[in-house]
Structures are given as structure tokens and as C-alpha cells.
Design a protein that fits this description.
single chain; alpha/beta; five-stranded mixed beta sheet; Methyltransferase, Cobalt-precorrin-4 Transmethylase, Domain 2; five-stranded parallel beta sheet; 2 domains; Cobalt-precorrin-4 Transmethylase, domain 1; 7 helices
């Protein structure tokens, strides 16, 4: 009887290959298969670009479709399909790693795949490897603490309602606004209303060759922003 393979979820960090953890790098060098999320046929996997130098030429690369949509039916179908493919490989005794940018357990496709996989293989042997988040890397890059002492920190993904954003920013002295590209103008307007616009920094693709950072949010209004972008807000300023 073939022993079932082990499944790894690996956060590859914010973008710079040398920001992967040693543990992540070691696992990537030894697994049989690396699963890479891909949002469309036109776009290469960002996670694979980051982690590629640690993966052996002999390792099988398995693309898992992760479409950029909010249609839960479409997403669930893709997650189930991806989990089924992974389950088959594990059942064959292969070790499989699913790579994802940032941290594996924060706003990651990996967590959805893992849930589906556990329903298919209830006893699946799994290990999740943490990665450096984009906002941790941002704070380090600008040499500013995310929060100090008893300060509160809000981590906010892709808010649609400006009123909700106002409410959160009124309660938290420090905030990370993630996935800001789609609502950038509206976010800047709220920050301006709350007199926080000059106490914020915008960062996109930190760790990549084309990384970008600015404290002048107005200069970016009505421009196309990258999906891998965030705004760090500190009520006390920088």
C-alpha cells in the first residue's frame, strides 16, 4: 500500500526571493510537486516568480486555477477542482506544496483549497509554512512600527463601503488597507475627510524590481493601480 503524501502550504513572502523563510526554501527543494495559483491564462503566477529559484528542475509544476472573481459558485468549483487534483497526487504518495504570496494563512487561496482537501482526505497530513506579509515588509522598508505598546492595529481587505472605512479608521490609530486598487479614489477621499491623507503611505509590488512607494496619494488619483498594493495609515504620522 502506497503511503499518502504530505501537503504543504507555503507563504513565499511579499515579493523578494530572499525574503522566503529558510524552512520554505528547504521544503521547495525537496517536494515532488509544486502547485502554483494562476488567475488567468494570460498572467504568469506571481508566487512562482518569487519562489522559482528554490524549485528543482525535476519538480513537477501544477497550475491551479484561481480566477479573479467574486462569484462564489465559480470560486467553489475551482477550489474543489484544484483540491481533487491535489488529492489524487497525495494518494499516489507524492509530496505536494501549494505556494502563495505573503502568508499562507492570511487572505490566501491556500486556506480555501485546504478546506476542500480536508473534506476529500479527512486524514490528510498537512503543514502550513508562514510567510512575511506585505504590510510587515512595508513597515520594515520605511523603518516604522506597525503598532507600539497597547496600540490597536486594523488589517482591512478591500472595503466597499466608505462609511465602514470611516468607522474603522476612527477606532484604530494604525491601519493597513489591502487591495486598494479598485477603490483607490474613494479611499483617498475618506482619508482626506479624516485628515489622515498626509499620514498615509502607498506601496505597490514591494520587493519586486518595479516596486513603488509614495506619500503623495493625490498624485495617484485616476490612475491604474496594481493589484498588489496597500496603504499604511498611522494617525500619529511617520
Amino acid at each position: 500500500m502506497i503511503q499518502q503524501g504530505k501537503f504543504y502550504g507555503i507563504g513565499v513572502g511579499p515579493g523578494a526571493p530572499d525574503l522566503l523563510t529558510v524552512r520554505a526554501a528547504n521544503i521547495l527543494k525537496t517536494v515532488d510537486i509544486v502547485c502554483v495559483p494562476r488567475s488567468s491564462k494570460e498572467n504568469d503566477s506571481v508566487a512562482l516568480k518569487v519562489a522559482g529559484s528554490y524549485i528543482s528542475d525535476k519538480t513537477e509544476i501544477l497550475e491551479i486555477s484561481t480566477p479573479m472573481t467574486r462569484d462564489t459558485a465559480v470560486l467553489n468549483a475551482e477550489w474543489e477542482s484544484g483540491a481533487a487534483v491535489i488529492a489524487k497526487k497525495l494518494y499516489e504518495g507524492k509530496s505536494v506544496a501549494f505556494i502563495t504570496i505573503g502568508d499562507a494563512m492570511l487572505f490566501s487561496t491556500y486556506t480555501y483549497i485546504l478546506k476542500k482537501l480536508k473534506s476529500l482526505l479527512p486524514g490528510v497530513y498537512t503543514e502550513s509554512i508562514p510567510g512575511i506579509t506585505s504590510f510587515s515588509a512595508t513597515a520594515a522598508f520605511i523603518n516604522t512600527a506597525l503598532a507600539e505598546g497597547s496600540e490597536k492595529l486594523a488589517i482591512i481587505p478591500a472595503i466597499e463601503d466608505p462609511n465602514e472605512l470611516r468607522s474603522i479608521l476612527a477606532k484604530f490609530p494604525n491601519a493597513v488597507l489591502m487591495k486598494v486598487a479598485g477603490k483607490f479614489n474613494e479611499i483617498v477621499e475618506v482619508l482626506d475627510e479624516l485628515q489622515l491623507k498626509n499620514k498615509a503611505v502607498y506601496v505597490s509590488k514591494l520587493g519586486y524590481p518595479d516596486q513603488f512607494i509614495t506619500y503623495d496619494l493625490d498624485s495617484l488619483k485616476n490612475t491604474k493601480r496594481d493589484y498588489l498594493s496597500l496603504i499604511l495609515v498611522k494617525r500619529e504620522g511617520f
